[in-house]
């Protein structure tokens, strides 16, 4: 499996794009503004979007993706997400007010897009690839994802705060190679991080000490203005592993 980072920033601006990752050629993990960096030929290859949660920085380009490619495809784009996340997309995005309801365009028998509910712990198999939703604790219902090639796994936590349930599952993944975990705030943003159920630096450092594997760890969702200080604060509290900042266009093979 090959994962390319299209966007990993906590905001937008020059060379900053919100969360989106391309798994092989045909699967998106989240669909933030990073999707806009892809060429049309690349967009046409995408058959699946796995969504961690309904916040705009993770779903903003699903409407544009469907609108751009729908008439050029011979099968619907499948959006995989928790039932509550799918309900948000239906009620607040694809509602014929904000954007057309492409789940019934051009008609209900040949839609440009199809919803597929997922559940924590229930693996989706795409050929030889396995994608498993993992528990997360965010201000809205959310999941992370384990991507397992059979040889090794990459885990993306999505947006979350401290969660024993998440670490319990991660520590059971015997072939874990990469862990991508968020820290949306430095310690200066602790108050808003707690309110919004995001990690801040020292809390993430404390949680990373629960990891029982020697995985490579990458930090995502960093804000442009405080990325360096956030990385320093996390690293200061982590005892047993080296941390890396996730970067746009970074590629993981596993």
TrEMBL record:
It comes from Nitrosomonas stercoris. InterPro entries: MBL, Metallo-B-lactamas, Pdiesterase2, RibonucZ/Hydroxyglut_hydro. GO terms for biological process: cAMP catabolic process; snRNA processing. This is Ribonuclease BN. One of its GO terms (molecular function) is 3',5'-cyclic-AMP phosphodiesterase activity. Gene3D superfamilies: Ribonuclease Z/Hydroxyacylglutathione hydrolase-like. Coiled coil: none annotated. Residues 17-198 form the Metallo-beta-lactamase domain. It holds the Pfam family Lactamase_B_2.
């Amino acid at each position: 499996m090959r994962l390319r980072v299209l966007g990993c920033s906590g905001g937008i601006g020059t060379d900053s794009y919100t969360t989106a990752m391309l798994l092989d050629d045909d699967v998106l993990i989240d669909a933030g503004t990073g999707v806009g960096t892809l060429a049309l030929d690349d967009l046409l290859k995408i058959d699946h979007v796995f969504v961690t949660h309904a916040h705009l920085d993770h779903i903003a380009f699903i409407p544009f993706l469907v609108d751009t490619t729908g008439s050029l495809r011979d099968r619907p784009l499948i959006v995989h997400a928790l039932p509550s996340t799918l309900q948000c997309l239906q009620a607040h995005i694809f509602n014929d007010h904000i954007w057309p309801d492409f789940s019934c365009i051009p008609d209900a028998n040949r839609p440009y897009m199809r919803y597929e509910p997922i559940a924590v712990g229930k693996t989706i198999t795409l050929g030889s690839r396995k994608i498993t939703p993992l528990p997360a604790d965010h201000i809205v219902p959310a999941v992370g994802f384990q991507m397992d090639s059979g040889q090794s796994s990459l885990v993306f936590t999505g947006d979350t705060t401290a969660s024993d349930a998440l670490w319990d599952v991660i520590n059971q993944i015997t072939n874990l190679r990469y862990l991508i975990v968020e820290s949306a705030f430095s310690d200066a943003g602790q108050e808003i991080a707690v309110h919004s159920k995001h990690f801040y630096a020292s809390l993430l450092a404390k949680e990373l000490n629960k990891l029982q594997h020697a995985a490579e760890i990458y930090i995502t969702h960093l804000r442009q203005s405080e990325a360096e200080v956030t990385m320093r604060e996390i690293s200061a509290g982590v005892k047993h592993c080296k941390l890396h900042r996730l970067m746009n266009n970074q590629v993981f093979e596993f």
